[in-house]
Amino acid sequence: MKNNIINRRTVLRTSALTILGLSFPSVTWAEQKSNIKMSKHFPNIPPEIIEEVVGKSHFDLDGVKSLVEKRPELSRSVWEWRFGDFESAIGAASHVGRRDIALYLMSKGARPTLFTFTMLGHFNVVKSAIEATPGIQETTGPHGISLLDHAYAGERMKDQMTKSEIESLEQTIDYLSGLGNANGTDYINVSSEEQKKYLGDYKYGQGENDGFTIGVNMRKLLSLGPIGGFGGALYKIGDNLFTYNGTPSVTISFNIQKDKVKSLTLTEPDITLIAEKI
Questions:
Q1: DSSP-based three-state secondary structure for 141
Q2: Which of left, alpha, beta for 246 (phi over 0: left; psi -120 to 50: alpha)?
Q3: φ, ψ at 47 (rounded to 5°)
Q4: Bridging pattern class, strands 271-277 and 260-268
């Protein structure tokens, strides 16, 4: 009788949950504990997977497919690199001109932006958006990259584009160039010779990773990253004063004594820290 009562209660409980759309597979708690390894981020997707999707969207179509095919929602991945420099997977593909990756992500549910349509050379879309929202062409994309630079990036895969696609892209470039303000902020140029004085490691704490590396990135711009790691671009806005990778609230200033850099000061809304050059 006791077993019958338990079974009946179990059936009633399961039926009630089913009505509410909350039925569960018939796996005991003991079985779950032994067979399922839960991520500490569950039910959220582990952030390292999000980072990998966005990272690979710059250059690796097969790598992106290996992640997105089994989980199409990853096509909409967005990652914050540092200091509020946000980038989506399709944003990554767009600013490097990987139309193949961008089109694949769109086929899986990614949300294209004005920067995507610009890179793809969709002239009518770009022109209509700017006419509907005058000034939007001055907005920059990930890492502070301009709308016009996204159009130029679209030329990367010209050899795989049709004649009409190329003509539309060229029309887009001509249109944006003619606007005069779609090429981003006019930052101060830093010569390769001037860059040399800033290069090196800077420490702000005793920990092994408590510091920054100032280097030069693939775009030949000064960059700031973790010690020994890759970094985001530094754009010069004043005398030994830079802003970080399109994030206007973050500035980096360098303290110069007797023509040598002694330290940097990083300022963002909640923190100001000084890192000594080592």
A1: coil
A2: left
A3: -60, -30
A4: antiparallel
**What number of H helices and E strands is found in the chain?**
11, 10
List, in order, residues 6 or more apart from 105 with CB less than 8 Å away: 57, 64, 68, 75, 89, 90, 93
The model's pTM: 0.82
**Which pLDDT tens digit goes with each residue over 189-215?**
999 999 999 999 999 999 999 999 999
Architecture of domain 47-179: Alpha Horseshoe (1.25)
Contacts of 4 (CB under 8 A, 6+ apart): none
Where exactly are the structural domains of the chain? 2-35, 47-179, 192-277
Query: In angstroms, rounded to a whole number, what is the distance separating the alpha carbons of residues 146 and 137?
Result: 8
Q: Strands 78-80 and 200-203: what pairing?
A: unpaired
Q: For residue 228, how far is the Cα from the chain centroid?
A: 20
Percent of the chain with pLDDT over 90: 81
* Predicted confidence (pLDDT) per residue in 125-166, tens digit: 999 999 999 999 999 999 999 999 999 999 999 999 999 999
Rounded Cα distance, 202 and 211, in Å: 5
DSSP state of 133: S
112 within 8 A of 75, measured Cβ to Cβ: no
DSSP structural state of residue 24 = -
